[in-house]
Amino acid sequence: MGRKWNNIKEKKASKDANTSRIYAKFGREIYVAAKQGEPDPVANQALRLVLERAKTYNVPKAIIDRAIEKAKGGADENYDTLRYEGFGPSGSMVIVDTLTNNVNRTASDVRSTFGKNGGNMGVNGSVAYMFDATAVFGIEGKSADEVLELLMEADLDVRDIMEEDDVVIVYAEPDQFHAVQEAFKNAGITEFTIAELTMLAQNDVELSNEDQEQFLKMIDALEELEDVQQVYHNVDLGDEE
User: Fold this and answer.
1) Distance CA 110, CA 94 (A)
2) Transmembrane segments in this chain: where (predicted)?
3) Are residues 141 and 187 in the same domain?
4) pLDDT > 50? residue 241
5) Does residue 17 fall inside a structural domain?
6) Which residues are registered as beta bridge partners of 133?
7) What's the CA gap between 64 and 117, in Å, rounded?
């Protein structure tokens, strides 16, 4: 799964380079999670997950607190969670997750962005079946053997454990997220380079230089859209970060 980790790193690098945009997206996601349940991460699993992801992106505490306080204050902004699927050049596949207060605007923007960048939007289910929902953790300062041992002690059987660039990557079932996280915390591991639920392609594709350039422009344009929270794809970006 090494190439999958490269793709995750590329996604994080892209977002880390656009901090104001990613902070705004997290603020919205935290607000929605807090409003839909208790505004307390101890009692609200969805909120706890968002806050764990926010931590790996260094989202300032002020932004987190503001979003939670907004939810506590009874703000009446309503958002829908919608997923769009589409295709790029040479068999590339893309999943776009959005959080929107205007479904028509978002659908139009996503469709237009695909079309303007050499892609096209597909119907529901046309792409998602080629991806697996996956919990992913990245840990520094431990070996793969040490991580495997502590997970075995917690009676957890995960999908895969690998070591790359001094980071141990753990791939687990999505419903194992909190169990794996708890096992790490019980072992004194509280800092992660990545801790999130993602969509990983079952098979990656490689593109020519020209197609990859066009594909990356499409991904960047999709991620620039105000309502887009996450973009997943099946392209092996190699050393592109």
Assistant:
1) 11
2) none
3) yes
4) no
5) yes
6) 199
7) 34
Say which residue the tokens 């059987």 belong to: 157
Q: Identify whether residues 149 and 110 lie together within a single domain.
A: no
Helices 209-224 and 2-16, interaxial angle, to 10°? 50
| Beta-ladder partners of 172 | 135
Round to whole Å and give the CA distance between 111 and 93.
Answer: 14
Q: Which of 137, 107, 76, 111 is nearest to 218 (CA)?
A: 111
Give the confidence band of 1 by pLDDT, cuts at 50, 70, 90. Answer: low
The pLDDT tens digits of the residues spanning 82-130 come to: 999 999 998 899 999 999 999 999 999 999 999 999 999 999 999 999 9
Specify whether the CB–CB gap between 98 and 81 falls below 8 A: yes
The answer to pTM > 0.85 is: yes
Domain-embedded: residue 8: yes
Boundary residue ending a domain (39, 56, 72)? 72
**Side chain identity at 195, as an amino acid letter?**
A
Residue 211: domain span: 80-129+204-233
Residue predicted with more confidence, 1 or 215: 215
Write the CATH number for 45: 1.10.10.200
2 has pLDDT over 80: no
Residue 218 shares a structural domain with residue 101? yes
